Amino acid sequence: MLVFIFQQCLKTLALPIYVLALFGLWDPICKRLFPFIMKNFSRVYNKTMHREKETLFKNMKDFADTSGKLRLLEIGVGTGTNFQFYPPNSHVTCIDYNPNFKNILLGSMAQNTHLQFEDFVVASAENMSSVSDNSVDVVVATLLLCSVDSPQAALKEILRVLRPGGAYLFMEHVAAGKSTWISFWQQVCNPTWRCVADGCTLLREPWKDLEKTGFSKLNWQHTTGPLILGVVRPNIYGYAVK
Fold first, then answer.
1. 78 vs 59: CA distance, rounded Å
2. Distance separating alpha carbons of residues 56 and 171, to the nearest angstrom
3. First and final C-alpha spacing in the chain
4. Burial 9-23, CB ≥16 within 10 A → b, else e
5. What's the rounded Cα separation, in Å, for the pair 138 and 93?
6. Can you tell me the distance from the alpha carbon of 37 to that of 112, in angstroms, rounded to the nearest whole number?
7. Can you spell out the DSSP letters for 72-86?
8. pLDDT of residue 38
9. Radius of gyration (Cα) for the chain, nearest Å?
């Protein structure tokens, strides 16, 4: 009951957004604003999670072919904040469902001249038909599974495009442990958060989907994200091998 009361208070504060959404006007506005919101959020997130990202990405070159070329696919690429962690001779294909990220992304590409950028594809993680089976050495996705319609379908697509022995590197904010204050506020904020944050949900437990996907090896651990946004502080990061 207390969660419901606080949810309604928050919805009242966000009433103009809900009215716009009712008439189908909020989604296009949100998709245009969201890249600029993420540009600022990503700076804070990268600063807080720098050590974890360095740990996560440090062995990427081990998955390159004999010539040193690494075929890398980043899904939900957003503003390109992961580019700085990729090794030289990475040939990067970028996928995002929101085409409005492209202009900011081009700036990030220009700053990371150690990488070879192949393409920017507008597509959902659940339907990456432009990417061939078994064609990618490494898939990277950070803060992705919170906003896809179907985590199971997205992970199935990731498994499909990876070559045998290829790796999926991930970092996600997740649902907090039950009966904690963070869990309480996640439940309160989730309906409005999803509306404001372009479909992102605070209540997913992606490790459960990862464990069911069929990777030959899976390794992940919990960590803590930026204090400035308490409801997205619980995080996991790790890797899975096809």
1. 23
2. 9
3. 44
4. eeeeebeebeebbee
5. 11
6. 22
7. EEEES-TT-TTGGGS
8. 92
9. 18
Q: Which residue has the tokens 């996705």?
A: 141
Are 172 and 234 within 8 A, CB to CB? no
- Phi then psi for 109, rounded to 5 degrees? -60, -45
pLDDT tens by residue, 38-77 = 998 888 899 999 999 999 999 999 999 989 999 999 999 9
Tens digits of residue pLDDT in 128-187? 999 999 999 999 999 999 999 999 999 999 999 999 999 999 999 999 999 899 999 999
C-alpha–C-alpha distance, residues 188 and 184, integer Å: 6
Note whether 112 and 80 are within 8 A (CB). Answer: yes
Q: Is 112 left (phi over 0), alpha (psi -120 to 50) or beta?
A: beta
* Secondary structure of residue 8 in the 3-state scheme: helix
Give the per-residue pLDDT at 229.
73
Asked if 73 contacts 93 with a C-beta cutoff of 8 angstroms, the reply is yes
Instruction: Name the one residue in this structure whose structure tokens are 């070559």.
Output: 163
- DSSP code per residue over 94-118: EEES-GGGHHHHHHHHHH-TTSEEE
Instruction: Provide the β-strand partners of residue 75.
Output: 95
Q: What are the CA-CA distances from residue 231 to residues 20, 145, 202, 207, 226 (Å)?
A: 25, 16, 7, 18, 9
